[in-house]
Amino acid sequence: MSTDDESFHPLGEEWEDELETMLDDTEYDSDLGMEMAQDAMRVTKGELSESEFHERYHEDVMEEFGEDERPTKEAYEAAQEEAKGTASNMLDAFDGDGGETRRETMKKMGVGAAAVGVGAFGATHDPPEQSLSAAEGGHSETTEHSDTQWGMTIDLERCDGCLSCMTACTQENSLDQGVNWMYVMAFEDELTSSSSPQPDVVGGKSDFNMLVRPCQHCTDAPCEKVCPTTARHTRDKDGLVLTDYDVCIGCRYCQVACPYGVNYFQWDEPDTDYSELDESHTMGEYEHGERWVDSRAPRGTMSKCTMCPSHQDGKRGDEKVGTSACEEVCPPNAIQFGNVKDEKSDPSQHREHPIKSRAVIDVERDVPSPDTLDENLSEDDDLASATEAVEDLTTELVSIMKAIEIVSRDTETDPGEEENNTILQKQETILEVLETLESYVDLESEDVLAELQLGSGESDDAMVRLQQFAGNPSAKFKLLEDIGTNPNITYLGQEPGPEAEQVEGPTKYEDVGDLVDKRQDILDEGTVGRVDGVSL
Question: What global pTM score does this model have?
Fold first, then answer.
């Protein structure tokens, strides 16, 4: 491990010290865990090859754990063939709840993900200027065999801090109180302003800078590189980074290697018994069988956000494929989940066309049906008579519908048959309604375009109108993108700076069900995590 005073961990020296202290309380080699985590991040940065990393620690891992199943390019296929049970001789018989337990000597301490301050994710450089409509660069594929990579675009300027996503995640996965796989944080940043700039636009917005932090499901995940058992692994078919609870031995090396601080160690028996879990959560589908990778973890194992594999595997019904529990309940539609490799998907549309996407989301629910227009309009109508004849059809609504149509002329509008391409589906609905309206009303004349605030009807004029309505995201970024993990979550909104500080958000945790903010609670509560040692 590095002997200088500079921390190798992106979350800083205090976080690194906490992790080292945590490893010291386990039965496993803490020095080995810290050194492997440091070099795993060197691999993601391109400073060390996968084969060099594997060779460097192979003997030590064999001596400490009895075998070394870490995936490398050379050994990957063989490891996947064996998949489940590769470390079976490392585990005592364990039924998950109430039967024989894992190693009784395992210490019952762990650092919770909540102990990371907002400033730890701060950009220490001037963010590069990016066009929000330009193609996303540097996004590498997760596997050579799949065109699917589940991920998200999270619109932080639309997040109102209601904590609905956290509640839904807790309920979906039967998580113990305080084990928050999603985290919603409000922050202030001296480098920008004390609070977010808030233009008066449609959509859920708060008076705070917000940060929503699930697992980033990295394409090149350091946590996977240090796992001796293949418990932490990337699933071939869709790029989800998951943990096989039957294989995990709780060494917590993944927790040290994670740049984002999203892992939890389940040190006590879960509140929800295994027999009470929904069957759809207990086995995820793989080419070579099934693995238990979803829902709350059994005692002595690691857990984190899974992006709902029970949904993606169709075990909750075909309509759930391409959705996540957090996305489904978000009132302001701040979370867009889907296949980030598909340009038609919700996260891709919201990432590449956020202004139009916001407008589509906001107005689609208000447009009248084509049948309603046919029943109330005639060929003699103009804009004024049409808005008077059809309830809730306003000049502003027509203006935004027409602006969406103009800016969509040179882009793909067919949603296709993929799962959860709802933004393009909503856009198609808007365009169908507009086509019906224009069969009665001329919306192309100079006078009408001027009344609709669309200038000469060019794309630039329409984009300005949509921006006036829906706002223009201040930035687009990925958390800690410079360390090379290729996270599969893109954020729209204010990126926290290194001096960003968490502040009390618009909704208190104690006011939302059984949520507990680990930053404000002590381990005496019986939940995972600590609050000491890390400045917020």
Answer: 0.85
